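Journal club prep, shared notes

We agreed each person brings one worked example of a sequence with its structure written out as tokens. Mine is SAGA-associated factor 29. I'm keeping it raw so we can talk through how to read the token line rather than staring at a rendered picture. Sequence first:
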Amino acid sequence: MSADTKIAELLTELHQLIKHTQEERSRSEHNLLNIHKTHERMQTENKTSPYYRNKLRGLYTTAKADAEAECGILRRALDKIAEIKSLLEERRIAAKMAGVYSDSDPPRKTMRRGVLMTLLQQSAMTLPLWIGKPGESPPPLCGATPASGDYVAKQGDKVAARVKAVDGDEQWILAEVVSYSHAANKYEVDDIDEEGKERHTLSRRRIIPLPQWKANPETDPEALFSKDQLVLALYPQTTCFYRALIHAPPHRPQDDYSVLFEDTSYADGYSPPLNVAQRYVVACKENKKK
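Then the structure, token by token:
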């Protein structure tokens, strides 16, 4: 089965799941309305009789079952979306390796900077939010949660990579993994903004995988960097990571970090607060301030 056929199939299944979700929600709303009306009657009569207690117990049991059923459908829908994104990414990588590009993913040598910045912003916005089950801890690469020690980034993954600049200085750049050699313990990566001129071969210690899920501040605040923590963050409208302090972590799932970049042109050594998406904030491997 071709990737296009599989994607079309998954989209059809996703559409059915969305319809099923709405049906479940409409059915559960009727039960929630009954709960509300029962509470109103109890307040009017100013008493809690065994009849009302039993009725509410049954209504709440049904509401819990309805919520779990809807949650199950939504999780299946999220799995379909993840499958579709994975197939699209596989197709993009295959096209890149073959030297064939679609209109939505032009070769980097013809990509205007404004287009690249838009694509990076879209990548940050569409990073999936981790939604765990009750009591489930966020996985590695969710928000600030680091990758496991033996983790190897896949082809096509975006990473922070430490490379030597033309002037000899080292800098952290946004890069895409081309391959990994288990024998040499080294990555080959392309600078996302280098117009395909050079490929870097780097050891694992020079690579930091980017988050694969956003952490939800409302349910998993421990999976976020905390205030005053030292990080590497992608400077707005660039493809380079710089050292920064967390000024404020996200308060809602859709929020960005507020960070203070190290900047000697300011009296206190830090820039005013700037917003950076969870996608582009990683732990800083260097603790000493230069």
